[in-house]
Amino acid sequence: MAVKEILLLGNSILRQQCSPVRFPLPEEMRSVIADLRDTLAEFRSNHGFGRGIAAPQVGTTQQIIYIDFEYVGALINPKIVRRSRKKFRLWDDCFSFPDILAYVQRNYDIEVSFQNEEGRRTHLKASGALSELLQHEIDHLSGILAIDRAIDSKHIILRSEYEKLAHKPQIAL
Ligand SMILES: [Zn+2]
């Protein structure tokens, strides 16, 4: 098990454009996938939330994300190939700034094309929670963070304030 340190907001690696992974998959990329799986599991057991992680969050600027929610496994070189016109809004968080929430707008349905560890290209259709998760993680591969997707700057808040205000209508929708 290799749990990695998660890079935090302000670290310039999180802002880099990640490079495509080449096939056959190098051994070091298999280790990165194992590290992503283990780091996600550890974060979830410590914080009680966490469904996905992206390679730059553990310091690797290659196009790999790892999901453990509805779909389990690594998505290599993922691309969103279709987006629904229908959108929805939600409070989003991130391992790289666990104390901040941003109110973002995402496409409700998407279709993602990606490669598995053998290099075979596969398509995944996602709706709702899995769709927004994939949009969040794929954004990381372009150096884009959830705070960049906030509907405006007033909708970036501390988790402690969110928890105080969550029941109030002005913060709901
Ligand atoms: Zn994130």
Written overview of the protein:
By secondary structure, the protein is an alpha+beta fold. It has a single domain (12-172), classed as Alpha-Beta Complex (Peptide Deformylase), CATH 3.90.45. The chain contains four helices and eight strands; from the N terminus they run αβββββββαβαα. A five-stranded antiparallel β-sheet has the order 1-2-3-6-7. Strands 4-5-8 form a three-stranded antiparallel β-sheet. It starts with 26 loop residues before the first helix and ends with a helix. The mean pLDDT is 94. Bound molecules: zinc ion. The site of zinc ion has 5 residues, from helix 2.
Write the layout of secondary structure elements.
Layout: H1 27-47, E1 52-54, E2 64-69, E3 71-83, E4 87-92, E5 100-107, E6 109-115, E7 121-127, H2 128-140, E8 156-158, H3 159-165, H4 169-172
Antiparallel strand pairs: 1-2, 2-3, 3-6, 4-5, 5-8, 6-7
The structure holds zinc ion.
List keywords for this structure.
173 residues; alpha+beta; Peptide Deformylase; 5-stranded antiparallel sheet; 3-stranded antiparallel sheet; 4 helices; 8 strands; binds zinc ion
CATH architect. name: Alpha-Beta Complex
Structural class: alpha+beta
So how many helices?
4
Q: Could you list the spans in which at least 5 consecutive residues all have pLDDT below 50? A: none
N-to-C CA distance: 41 Å
State the oligomer: single chain
Give the fraction of residues assigned to helices: 25-40%
- Strand portion, in percent? 25-35%
Number of strands: 8
The CATH homology group name? Peptide deformylase
Q: Tell me, briefly, the overall form.
A: globular
What does the largest sheet look like? 5 strands, antiparallel
Please write the string of helix (H) and strand (E) elements. Answer: HEEEEEEEHEHH
Counting structural domains, the number is 1
CATH class: Alpha Beta
What is the CA-based Rg, rounded?
A: 16 Å
**Named CATH topology:** Peptide Deformylase
Mean pLDDT: 94
**What ligands does this structure carry?**
zinc ion
Tell me the strand order in the biggest sheet. 1-2-3-6-7
